[in-house]
Specification:
This is Odorant receptor. Helix content is 74%, strand content 2%. It has 461 residues and is mainly alpha-helical. The longest helix has 60 residues.
Length: 461
C-alpha cells in the first residue's frame, strides 16, 4: 500500500501541464466528495439503528404501561447475562461492533475507489495527450516540432501502460482478501434475504422489516458501486482508442500514423478488473440481457423472405408451447404439494379421530415455534420458498431455451442444402470455404466444465 501511495505522489509531481493537473484535481475532488457522503450516510445509519433500539425505552418514558416493553437488540449475541436487565451493555456492544465493521468497510472501499479513480484520471490524461497531439496545423510543423509530437505520444503510451500496471498490481495484492470478501458478501446477502422473508411472513414488526430491507438494499448498492467502478476503469482504458481514432491522424506524417495505429491496436485488447479471481466488475451484466433481446428483434426485422419468417415463427411457437407446458407442470406440482400437506386436515374434517392427525410439512426448516400449533405459517413459508425457487429456475430455463432455439432457427435459415454444382466456379469455391469452416466442432459448455450434448448418454453403451 505504501508503494501505491508513493506512486500516486510521483504521478502528481510529474504533471506539469495545467490541463492535466485539472484532470487529477477533478477526480480527487470526486473521491473526496464521495468519501464525505459515505461517512455521513454511515453516521445516519448508526443514528437510525440506535433510535430503533431505544424506541421501547422512549415509549416507556412517554407512554408508560403496567409492564415495561421488552428490550432486545436486533443483532443476536450472547453474554450469558440477562438481556433485559443489562440492555445498555448489549446496546453499546452492538453499536461498537457495527461501527468497527462499517468504518472498516468504508475505509477499505473508499481507498480502493480512490486508487481506481486515480487510474481513470491517468487514462484520461493519456487520452487527452493523444487527442491534442495531431491538429489541423500538423502539416505546417517543422521536423523539430514533429519530434516533440513523437515524445508526446510516447509519454501518453507510457502513462497508459503504467496506470494499467498500477491497477493490476493493486488487484494482485488484494485479490486473496477480495476472494474471502466476495464469499462472505454472498453468504451475508443470502442470510439477510432469508431473514427478511421470515420477518414478512411472521410479521415481526416494522422495525425488524425496515432493518432487513435496509441491509439488503445496502448489499445491492455495494454491488452496483463495485460494478460501476470496474466499468469506469474499463471505459477510461478504452478511451485512448477513441482519442487516437478521432484525432486528425491522416494529417500526420506516415511514421506517426504507424505509431498511432500501434496505439489503437494495443488499446483494443480487453481489459477487465477481476475481484478475487472470480468476479469481473462491469455493468455488462446489467445490459447483456437487453442486448440479446435487441439482437433477436433485429434478426426478426432483417428477414424479409416468407420462408425464413416461417422458420422463425415455427421455433418461436415451439418455445411458447414448451414454456406453457412447463408452467402448467409447475402449477400442478404446487397444487399437488399443497394437497398432500393439507391431507391430514381434510381427513380430520371428513373422518375425525379421537386425536388429530399429525401435521408436518415435507421440507424441514426451523422457526423455533411449535410446528403443530403454527402449521399454516410453516405451510405458507414452504409454498413461498418453493414458488420462488421453481419460478426462478423456470424463468432462467425458458429464457435460455428461447435464446438457444433462436440460434437454431437462424442456423436453419442459413443451411447449406443448395445446388452448388450448378453455380459458377468462384461461387463453388466460396461455398466450399463456408462448408469447411462449418466443419469445426461447435459445443456449448456450461460453467466451463460441462459440454451439453447427447453424446454422454451413448458413451457408456
Amino acid at each position: 500500500m505504501k508503494y501505491l501511495l508513493q506512486q500516486i505522489k510521483l504521478d502528481w509531481n510529474s504533471i506539469e501541464d495545467n490541463n492535466e493537473m485539472k484532470i487529477l484535481e477533478k477526480y480527487a475532488n470526486e473521491n473526496r466528495l464521495l468519501s464525505l457522503i459515505l461517512f455521513f450516510v454511515a453516521a445516519f445509519v448508526i443514528s437510525f439503528i440506535i433510535i430503533i433500539e431505544l424506541i421501547p425505552v422512549a415509549l416507556d418514558a412517554v407512554i408508560p404501561m403496567n409492564k415495561s416493553r421488552p428490550r432486545k437488540v436486533k443483532i443476536d449475541f450472547e453474554f450469558f447475562i440477562d438481556e433485559e436487565q443489562y440492555f445498555y451493555i448489549y446496546l453499546i456492544y452492538e453499536v461498537i461492533t457495527i461501527l468497527i465493521g462499517l468504518f472498516t468497510i468504508l475505509a477499505t472501499g473508499t481507498l480502493s475507489f480512490m486508487l481506481f479513480r486515480h487510474c481513470c484520471a491517468s487514462f484520461k490524461i493519456a487520452s487527452n495527450i493523444i487527442e491534442n497531439t495531431v491538429t489541423k496545423h500538423t502539416l505546417q510543423i517543422s521536423y523539430r516540432k514533429t519530434h516533440v509530437m513523437y515524445q508526446k505520444i510516447i509519454r501518453a503510451v507510457h502513462i497508459h501502460r503504467k496506470s494499467a500496471r498500477f491497477s493490476t498490481f493493486f488487484l494482485n495484492i488484494m485479490n486473496k482478501w477480495y476472494f474471502a470478501l466476495v464469499i462472505i458478501s454472498v453468504m451475508s446477502l443470502s442470510c439477510n434475504l432469508f431473514r427478511l422473508l421470515n420477518a414478512l411472513i411472521l410479521s415481526n414488526g416494522f422495525s425488524e422489516i425496515t432493518l432487513c430491507i435496509g441491509i439488503v438494499v445496502c448489499h445491492f448498492i455495494v454491488m452496483f458501486v463495485t460494478n460501476f467502478v470496474g466499468q469506469s476503469v474499463i471505459d477510461h482504458y478504452a478511451e485512448i482508442f477513441n482519442a487516437a481514432y478521432n484525432t486528425m491522424w491522416y494529417l500526420a506524417p506516415l511514421s506517426m500514423q504507424k505509431l498511432l495505429l500501434f496505439v489503437m491496436q494495443n488499446s483494443l485488447k480487453a481489459y477487465t478488473l477481476t475481484i478475487g479471481h472470480i468476479y469481473v466488475t462491469s455493468l455488462e451484466g446489467f445490459s447483456t440481457m437487453k442486448y440479446l433481446l435487441k439482437q433477436i428483434k433485429l434478426d426478426w426485422n432483417s428477414f424479409e423472405d416468407e420462408s425464413e419468417i416461417r422458420i422463425l415463427k415455427k421455433y418461436a411457437i415451439e418455445n411458447r408451447l414448451v414454456s406453457i407446458i412447463l408452467s402448467f407442470c409447475t402449477a400442478f406440482s404446487m397444487f399437488s404439494l399443497v394437497t398432500i400437506e393439507l391431507t391430514p386436515i381434510v381427513l380430520d374434517a371428513v373422518i375425525p379421530m379421537n386425536k388429530s392427525r399429525p401435521r408436518k410439512i415435507k421440507v424441514d426448516f426451523e422457526f423455533f415455534i411449535d410446528q403443530e400449533q403454527y402449521f399454516y405459517i410453516y405451510l405458507i413459508h414452504e409454498i413461498i420458498t418453493m414458488l420462488i425457487g421453481v419460478l426462478t429456475v423456470l424463468a432462467i430455463g425458458t429464457l435460455s431455451l428461447g435464446f438457444f432455439r433462436h440460434c437454431c432457427a437462424t442456423f436453419k435459415i442459413a443451411r447449406y442444402n443448395t445446388m452448388w454444382y450448378i453455380a459458377p466456379l468462384s461461387i463453388q469455391k466460396l461455398l466450399l470455404f463456408v462448408m469447411q469452416n462449418s466443419l469445426k466442432a461447435y459445443t456449448l459448455t456450461i460453467g466451463h466444465i460441462y459440454v451439453t450434448s447427447l453424446e454422454g448418454f451413448s458413451t457408456v453403451t
